[in-house]
User: What shape does this take?
Amino acid sequence: MTDSDKTQKQLLEEVKALRRQVELLEAQAVQTRRAAEASQQAHRDLQRRMAERTAELPKANEHLKQEIEDRKRAEQELKRTKEYLENVIDNSVDAIGIVDRHGRFLLWNRRAAEIYGYRFHELEGKRAFDLYADPQELDRMLTRLRQDGVVRECEIQMKKRDGAIVPMDISISLLKDEQGRTIGSVCVARDMSERKKTEMKLKEAQEELSRYSKDLERQIRERTSEISAILRYTPAVVYIKDRDGRYKLVNSRFEELFGITNEEIRGKSDYEIFPLEVADRFRENDLQVLQEKSPLKVEEPIYQDDGSHTYLSVKFPLYDEQGYANGVCGISTDITELKKAQDQLRLLSGSIMASQEKERTAIARELHDELGQVLTALRLDSVWLSDRLRNRDPRGADRAVTMCDLIDKTIDEVRGLATRLRPGVLDDFGLIEALNWYIKDFSRRTGITCSFDHENVPEVDDVVATAAYRITQEALTNVARHSFATQVRVSLEGRDNMLTLAVVDNGRGFYPRDLRESECLGLAGMRERASLLGGILDIHANPFRGAQVRFRLPLDKLTLGKEDPGDSGPVGRRP
Assistant: This one.
């Protein structure tokens, strides 16, 4: 049908249908355009993302390479750690074994092989439970292991390959997988045999120590009782002070003498008990002991109710466990009566020596005057007789001349003897001239070269001069008799408020310990003369190195040795 044949209504419907188709086509075109736009946008996004991913690809590759290197290093570190752990396990001082959940061995280190006697391949077919000696001990240990998951330091009996049963110290830990299931255990064991032996020896030593301690305590009680008795009944004064000079202990004799108890004096110093002068002297002696860390023997005078007393005090340091001198102990003995007796003895000795010098002087005078006169008369008679017989009896005259010569020698010997007994030069010219004369005479008589030096010699009285002369005389006599010396040097000098006389030889010397109390070398007389004047006589000798006798006298004591006004005559004159 053509369009002309169609009705208007039909045409309108067709137009509407065409319009709907056009709208549909337009809508499809819009959708197509949008789809194309979306497709283009997606294509652009894809290209952008591909460009981004392409740009990220080198970084990803670098990151992947880094991860690969890290994994290789981790594998190497793991390998080293594994080797280290294997080395530690294999060289452990303890036996280490790893077993599966059925007790079959997975690892067995070298120490385990040494202790149990099994090598790893020899454990095939064995289970760890077979190494326990007591099934009941094993059950108790396994029960603890199931409950706690670990057993630490459990002492249990184990069997070695040779059948020996030894005590072992066992520690076991369970091994679990990722799901927490038990897949085995690690056991660390230590042989307790040596430890048990050591514990047994230690126990025996402790028992022995206990017995020794009890015996020592008994001895300490006995010694304490003895010391307490000594402190209680000794006539000496005993005390202990700390470093600050405060009393810690005194004995009963101290309490009795000074009227103070041990409790009252504890913590007090000498300044709270004694006068200042006495306290100063005590403190000075205590400090010397602490500083020098050596014993000190000193005389300490003190005034008591019945007068002045002199105590011979021996003080010595006390040390703590670190060797630090933390106190002083003193033992003081009253020597007042002894000092009086010594003073009396010294006076008596001095009087005897003075009498000896007087007797020597008298004998020397008699030898020189009386015997000398008789010998002189005999010599004159011999000369007269020789002259009378010269022509009549020549032989008799010769005998008279011989007699005259003999008398001359006798006169010389008598003069020398008188001079040695008491040289007139000491009385007439003093000590220096007397020593000078005697030393020259000694050198002439003995053939020993002897020199004499003197310097700054102060004026001395007769007693000091006589003592110095006699000490020199005795020392040189000892040199001539015993030393085999070829040279002797005598010196006399005043220096540093001290008069010093020294006799030094180059002889064979001697050991000082060989000097006996008999004083065979005449040292007793020299010591006595020095002591009477308040001086000191020192003797130093070495074998084959000679000897030295040295007499020292403080200058402030040079006037203390004056002769007794009651003596019948002077011993000597001052130079």
Notes: The longest strand covers residues 307-319. The chain has five domains: 1-83, 91-191, 234-334, 337-422, 425-575. The two ends are 194 Å apart (CA to CA).
